[in-house]
Specification:
Number of helices: 14
Largest sheet: 6 strands, mixed
Structural class: alpha/beta
Number of domains: 2
Number of strands: 10
CATH class of the largest domain: Alpha Beta
Organism: Mesorhizobium kowhaii
Radius of gyration: 20 Å
InterPro entries: ABC_Transporter_SBP, ABC_transptr_periplasmic_BD
Distance between the termini: 41 Å
Order of helices and strands: HHEHEHEHEHHEEHEEHEHHHEHH
CATH topology of the largest domain: Rossmann fold
Protein name: Hemin ABC transporter substrate-binding protein
CATH superfamily of the largest domain: Nitrogenase molybdenum iron protein domain
Helix content: 25-40%
Pfam family, one: Peripla_BP_2
Domain Fe/B12 periplasmic-binding: 45-299
CATH architecture of the largest domain: 3-Layer(aba) Sandwich
Length: 302
């Protein structure tokens, strides 16, 4: 099995800056009386950690509060002008603290744990946003981000808009009887397939788009045996279009286990931008629609 920490090179887009160990040492000596806060006392300079968090702040029209982003925050394009404090799962306290934030708004799962523990021990308010790969999970994130920034009313308006869009997107495949079996491939390492099990963003998206995750028996992203892939019999392989190192179509379908599946025989592969597909944020309803159309074509209803 491959731990999630081993997957970081596959997903990483950038590493956080380092400005020396002294800042981290100072941070460890501090105590954070505001840990567990839900509203920033001073939201003037917020470091957003997590692509969906940054997107939500922009969707709320509150981007003026942002002083930094993490390297998964690639949308909207304007966010790229913000300083990058590092990859969400490989943060350094030095990098985050170097932008002098008045608050840190971080998606659950940010790491490593040691770095997050350091940040939580500083005097800077740290608000952690839960991550649930579901319709309701998106609405919860919007409301928590809005509350943190002191714009509850705006967040409620956005949540209602997204609720309606998500409901409509999910209903587009409600009448489809023959569900496609999907294998989400994160990467191929040494000829072995790294696939998405339950409790993952990929699993959540497949279900919302009317598909069936072929992987059973494990959660997270793990290596599958050739026999397990053949037994899973996926109709479609789903991958991110921007994950590295890149895997070509020929390389994927030359894999003996993939070649032995219905998806391999038909060379059925769907690639979608990772942040768009797996972000679980303001654009997710559109991503559900696009994935559903890629899976079912004209069977998708408007």
């Amino acid at each position: 099995m491959v731990s999630f920490s081993r997957l970081a090179p596959v997903l990483r887009l950038a590493l956080g800056p380092a400005i020396g160990l002294s800042l981290a040492f100072v941070a460890l000596q501090s105590s954070n009386a505001t840990e567990g806060a839900t509203v920033f006392a001073d939201p003037s300079k917020i470091a957003a950690i997590g692509g969906s968090i940054t997107e939500i702040v922009y969707a709320l029209g509150e981007e003026k509060h942002l002083v930094a982003r993490d390297s998964t925050s690639l949308y909207p394009k304007a966010a790229l002008d913000l300083p990058d404090v590092g990859y969400i799962r490989q943060l350094s306290p030095e990098g985050v603290l170097s932008v002098n934030p008045t608050g840190i708004l971080a998606l659950h799962g940010s790491g490593p744990k040691e770095a997050v523990d350091v940040l939580k021990k500083t005097s800077i308010p740290f608000i952690e946003v839960p991550e649930h790969y579901s319709h309701e999970g998106i609405l919860e994130k919007v409301r928590i981000v809005g509350k943190a920034l002191g714009v509850d009313a705006k967040a409620e308006v956005l949540a209602r808009e997204l609720d309606a869009k998500l409901t409509a997107a999910e209903q587009q495949t409600a009448s489809i009887k023959q569900r496609k079996r999907i294998l989400f491939v994160l990467s191929i390492q040494g000829g072995k397939i790294l696939a998405a099990g339950s409790e993952t963003a990929a699993d959540g998206m497949v279900k919302l788009a009317g598909g069936v995750n072929t992987v059973e028996g494990f959660s997270g992203y793990k290596q599958m045996s050739d026999e397990a892939i053949i037994t899973a019999r996926p109709d479609v392989i789903l991958m991110m279009s921007n994950a590295g190192p890149p895997v070509s179509d020929d390389e994927l379908f030359a894999n003996p286990s993939i070649a032995s599946t219905p998806a391999g025989t038909a060379r059925k592969l769907i690639r979608i931008d990772g942040g768009y597909l797996l972000g679980f944020g303001p654009r997710t309803a559109d991503a559900i629609h696009d994935l559903a159309v890629s899976l079912y074509g004209g069977q998708v209803t408007d």
